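User: Just a sanity check before I run the rest of the batch. Below are the structure tokens for the first item. I only need the designed sequence back.
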């Protein structure tokens, strides 16, 4: 009987931990804390960490693609070989934008040109409805 109760408890604990792993925070481009590919478009010229794009061993016969502009967590650019797969950017020329430029220039520009709102109480959403801060948000890196 003790063995049965122990097994049931283990199953319950596993189920609870699996549910806890399902909880997450969604951050999309144009928000502070977003890391990934950004579309410079008509944004002001980015401040770059390195003046030349970084490429991690392109395959033989590779025709260079358009460079990507990425906002990455501190240290990822220094160890790019280790992190390029996380951004689907191995073998692509990559410019790393400075965190301060992303937060102080790109985020306000993106919000202004994409009708982006943080979703604070009393603000209007993109659809013109009052947003009272409910919902889980969405994932996106475009």
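Assistant: Here's the designed sequence for the first item:
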């Amino acid at each position: 009987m003790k063995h049965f109760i122990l097994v049931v408890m283990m199953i319950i604990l596993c189920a609870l931990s699996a549910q806890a792993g399902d909880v997450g925070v969604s951050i999309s481009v144009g928000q502070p804390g977003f890391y990934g590919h950004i579309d410079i478009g008509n944004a002001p010229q980015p401040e770059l960490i390195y003046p030349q794009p970084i490429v991690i061993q392109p395959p033989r016969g590779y025709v260079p693609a358009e460079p990507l502009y990425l906002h990455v967590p501190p240290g990822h650019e220094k160890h790019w070989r280790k992190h390029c797969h996380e951004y689907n950017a191995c073998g692509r020329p990559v410019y790393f934008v400075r965190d301060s430029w992303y937060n102080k220039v790109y985020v306000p520009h993106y919000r202004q040109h994409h009708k982006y709102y943080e979703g604070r109480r009393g603000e209007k959403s993109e659809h013109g409805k009052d947003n009272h801060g409910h919902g889980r948000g969405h994932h996106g890196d475009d």
